[in-house]
Amino acid sequence: MELKKTGIVLGLIITFQMTSAFADTVGNVPIRILPTKAKSSNLQAQQLVDLVRSNFDLSSAREARVQAIFNASGKSDHVLVYVLRKGVHGFKLSSVKVDANNNVKSIDSNYRATAQDFAQQPGSSTDYKCPDASVEFISFAPNDNDLEQQITVGVADAADAHHLKAVRLLKADATRQNYLNYMVCPNLKGNFYDGDSNPSEFITVDGLIGAQEVSTILKNTFRHKVVNIWLACEAFNDPMLSAVTKDAQAQKYAAGKNDLQVGPSDETGKCAMIAALDGQAMTAAFNDCYKRLDVTSDQWGFDGDGSDYFGK
User: Fold this and answer.
1) In this predicted structure, what is the pLDDT of residue 4?
2) Do residues 37 and 108 share a domain?
3) Is residue 124 part of a domain?
4) Do residues 100 and 145 share a domain?
5) What is the domain-level CATH number for residue 217?
6) 176: which residues sit within 8 A by CB, 6+ positions away?
7) Same domain, yes or no: 150 and 249
8) Which of 152, 161, 185, 256 has the fewest CB atoms in 10 Å of its CB?
9) What confidence score (pLDDT) does residue 39 get?
10) Which of 84, 119, 154 is where one domain is finished?
């Protein structure tokens, strides 16, 4: 199968539109090369695509993403491989260790991102500022998936209808920097995420955000005043659970305890957030939405120390 060759060095990919870094691989699973802060690289885009194609089984994937992480000398140290799984809101993160000649030394298929990985994610590592203090609601959807986009826009429209200042962070706008910037806004009341996660990280269009970052960057930010409903597999487990509920102090937090199926879970999350906006008691409303719209194999968590009523 012919691959689309980008012909660019990885360090320059950050200047391209996100959709320009796709290439076809076995089974037509797209591979996207993610940017980093590195200024130069000894790995070319085609090498990264070939690394994924040669070392990973993508038969159960809907998309793969690859991101090179560098050492202090600017040479590739390891490569992060994100495998987004078909039919669920989850992804698997692996690390491929490479030598000075870019040969694969080892693969850790149960990897959790480290401080080195987060330091090289695009955008700021420490300084996040609210772009608009009047923003009260975030709808965030990083994937190029029609259903996820429709659900997320529908929730934002409902927030608008309740006279909340809503921001839509969709596709190319669903970056790490944008999300963290808006999550520190002082008047935030609602945060709807429709994407992919594991217990330690969730994805943005250009990389990932980790539980440790939530714990530190968003510490005490939500003040038990922000309702978070996330279409996110396994994110209602530690460390992400404690990061959102205890450290960031969510008013209420809903996410998957296990794998959430794309479709039924999206409808459930949308229903629950709209019910919250309508002023219904959120715990009972969430349970009702789940019983009517979801499948029993989806196991959600719904908890938080704040009021059971949105905006209270």
Assistant:
1) 31
2) yes
3) no
4) no
5) 3.40.50.1460
6) 121, 122, 123, 204, 206, 207, 208, 209
7) yes
8) 161
9) 56
10) 119
Residues 246, 151, single domain; the answer is yes
**Model pLDDT, residue 124:** 75
- Beta strands across the sheet bearing 137-141: 166-170, 137-141, 190-194, 227-231, 252-256, 300-303
Q: Give the chain's mean pLDDT.
A: 90
8 A C-beta contact, residue 269 and residue 194: yes
3-state SS track over 187-247:
CCCEEEEECCECCCEEEECCEEEEHHHHHHHCCCCCCCCCEEEEECCCCCCCCHHHHHHHH
**Structural contact between residues 24 and 2, judged by C-beta atoms closer than 8 angstroms:** yes
Do 296 and 152 fall into the same domain?
A: yes
Residues 274 and 148 in one domain: yes
Task: Please check whether residues 114 and 198 belong to one and the same domain.
Answer: no
Residues of the chain predicted below pLDDT 50? 1-26
Question: Which residues lie closer than 8 Å to 77 by C-beta, 6 or more apart?
Answer: 69, 70, 71, 97, 98, 116
Q: Which pLDDT score, from 0 to 100, does residue 132 have? A: 98
Number of domains in the chain: 2
Residue at 288: amino acid letter = D
CA angle 310, 259, 35 (to 5 degrees): 85
Residue 144 CA, distance from chain mean position: 13
Task: Tell me the pTM.
Answer: 0.91
Q: Tens of pLDDT along 17-59?
A: 333 344 444 458 999 999 988 655 667 888 899 999 999 999 9
The pLDDT of residue 260 is 98
